[in-house]
């Protein structure tokens, strides 16, 4: 199992790190690190976990996370089946809070940057025109060098700091109480759920994966995920059903059973609770959304 508490991905020779990622699937490990992170999905679909927030992701998904905020972009199950026609791409930027010096953020000129960094503690989903402009800057940043790259990163942060098109992700009361041993255990749970959510999953079998009794696991999971395991599993299934509805390859009944629900009535009820739409309304509203 890959260590959840990773060493800094930034070398001592650089102020920040930017990487273009291309792989069969994104890193499947639930983890956190001391750097700020800006990540955009260029290709691929799946489920995104930021703190206690769960949501489907697709091409164009752009998220800014603060230090030590647990996160995971878990690719859909088909990306783990060895299909050479399926792969993922993304761009990730890492930097420390004081990459321009310890006193910079205290200056008047950095007021909006301080606000941006505060919001990033909960995770920010960047959307709309701001996301489009940020994506273009991130693409240029991959090939920029030396001080030009620093100026480009500053322009990128300025864009995010002055943009209003964003959603805060994890709840205001969420705090990261995980240790390395906890994240390894949560990784086992995440991996099992993402592989099997379309089938029946019992509390007993997931508790066994975590080497705990069902009662202890229920208490442990709610403490660390800020929700019950049942609610977590429902969010995973609803997120996957959202993707299927947008793709328009299945009717609503097929989407229901392929997402792991046993009855159409329960699916409709749970779907509306999570998304505030019924499945048909959701499909009509988001049918024009581009999916890679």
From TrEMBL:
One of its GO terms (molecular function) is sequence-specific DNA binding. The keyword Transport does not apply. Gene3D superfamilies: Homeodomain-like, Jelly Rolls. SUPFAM superfamilies: Homeodomain-like, Regulatory protein AraC. PROSITE patterns: HTH_ARAC_FAMILY_2 (PS01124). CDD domains: cupin_MtlR-like_N. Keywords: DNA-binding, Transcription, Transcription regulation. This is AraC family transcriptional regulator. It comes from Chryseosolibacter histidini.
């Amino acid at each position: 199992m890959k260590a959840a508490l990773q060493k800094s991905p930034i070398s001592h020779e650089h102020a920040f790190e930017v990487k273009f990622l291309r792989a069969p699937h994104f890193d499947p490990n639930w983890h956190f690190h001391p750097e700020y992170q800006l990540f955009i999905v260029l290709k691929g679909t799946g489920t995104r976990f930021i703190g206690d927030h769960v949501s489907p992701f697709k091409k164009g998904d752009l998220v800014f996370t603060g230090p030590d905020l647990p996160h995971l972009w878990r690719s859909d199950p088909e990306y783990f089946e060895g299909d050479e026609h399926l792969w993922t791409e993304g761009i990730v930027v890492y930097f420390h809070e004081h990459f321009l010096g310890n006193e910079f953020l205290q200056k008047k000129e950095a007021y909006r940057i301080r606000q941006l960094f505060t919001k990033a503690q909960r995770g920010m989903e960047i959307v709309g025109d701001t996301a489009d402009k940020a994506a273009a800057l991130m693409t240029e940043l991959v090939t920029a060098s030396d001080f030009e790259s620093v100026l480009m990163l500053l322009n990128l942060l300025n864009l995010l700091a002055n943009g209003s098109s964003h959603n805060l992700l994890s709840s205001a009361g969420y705090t990261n109480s995980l240790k390395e041993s906890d994240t390894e255990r949560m990784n086992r749970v995440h991996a099992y759920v993402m592989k099997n959510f379309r089938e029946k999953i019992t509390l007993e079998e997931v508790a066994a994966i975590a080497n705990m009794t069902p009662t202890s696991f229920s208490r442990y999971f709610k403490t660390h995920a800020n929700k019950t395991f049942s609610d977590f599993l429902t969010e995973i299934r609803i997120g996957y059903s959202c993707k299927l509805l947008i793709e328009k390859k299945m009717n609503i009944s097929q989407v229901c059973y392929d997402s792991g629900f046993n009855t159409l009535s329960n699916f409709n009820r749970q779907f509306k609770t999570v998304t505030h739409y019924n499945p048909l309304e959701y499909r009509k509203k988001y049918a024009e959304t581009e999916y890679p």
